[in-house]
Recover the amino acids of this structure.
């Protein structure tokens, strides 16, 4: 079950992973939106790279948030692989490592 529809059950084995993914995605999404607003208020050098990363990170947070909720509703661990890879990709693409 991939999680296109949310069911009313919670898989207790996947609850810790799904809950941690959901909380991290919510905090990360709010943080990147605040970061993007602060970027637009005070534009630093290479601001376009930072703003592009912020938009990509906010979209990734929305994807991970949805998949985190789906992970809590499934008994299959493979549902969590794609969001973890997307989160790792956003962390690697962080402009602070490169500029």
């Amino acid at each position: 079950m991939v999680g296109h529809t949310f069911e009313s059950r919670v898989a207790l084995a996947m609850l810790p992973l799904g809950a941690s993914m959901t909380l991290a995605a919510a905090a990360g999404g709010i943080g990147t939106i605040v970061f993007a607003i602060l970027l637009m208020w005070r534009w630093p050098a290479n601001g376009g790279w930072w703003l592009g990363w912020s938009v990509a990170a906010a979209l990734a947070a929305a994807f991970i948030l949805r998949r985190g909720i789906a992970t809590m509703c499934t008994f299959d661990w493979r549902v969590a692989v794609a969001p973890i890879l997307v989160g790792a990709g956003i962390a690697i693409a962080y402009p602070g490592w490169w500029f």
In short: The mean pLDDT is 87. Residues 15-41 form the longest helix (27 residues).
